[in-house]
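tool=predict chain=A
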Amino acid sequence: MALTLDLSGHVAVVTGSTSGIGLGIATSLAEAGAKVALNSHLDREEDHQIASDLAKKAGVEVVYIQADMSSAEACVSLIEQASEKLGTVDILVNNAGIQYVAPIEDFPVSKWDAIMAINLSSAFHTIRAAVPGMKEKGWGRIVNIASAHGLTASPYKSAYVSAKHGLLGLTKTVALELAELGATCNAICPGYVLTPLVEGQIPDQMKAHNMSREDVIKNVMLDRQPTKEFVTVEQMGAFTVFLASDAGSQITGAALTADGGWTAM
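tool=predict ok
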């Protein structure tokens, strides 16, 4: 049987998907034929326009749904609304995340709670809401966007590292529960991805270190990434499409790296 990357007939939700990695993944899923629900915690006209533009570009139905991923109720509502607008959600990409950096003794409790809620608990809530529909269809794909920090650690990132490690545990558990039900659950662990947010940090780093753009990228931002090249949002999108396709049907419970060799060190 010929395997295909065509996702026509499937419905995808991508959390945190109006920019960066999330939008790159949503774009790739739409271009592969899936209907897609975009999401962020805001409800701006430009968010709905992003969905409209992607729908025209990919030739599939794309909607925007506002949901605060720190709220369990909003996470469940996101899946319910997407199912009502597009059909049963059978591809779920948990991408929403925030970051905060501070020494453990100075780490604000409110920041810890927020990072845990958005980076870890939101995935639990969206998965538990989406799984019944996947079971009924006998087909599903869950892709959790973790991080190289789900496999290793860095100083001053206690909440982020803990949440991403926890996300890998959730991934493995869900994979085992769904193993005989036609659904998979995997995590992608990227290193530094070149997003608009990261791109915007480069000039400040150049000033702070008195370095050229090339030296800042190679010796500061990509210091722990052996290839000295950023992961691209297009690569993250293609990786997700592969996992969601027929070709990925026997990959489940895996923590798959896209980190330029970071975790090989």
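The domain at 11-192+231-257 is CATH 3.40.50.720 (Rossmann fold). The chain is about 50% helix and 15% strand.
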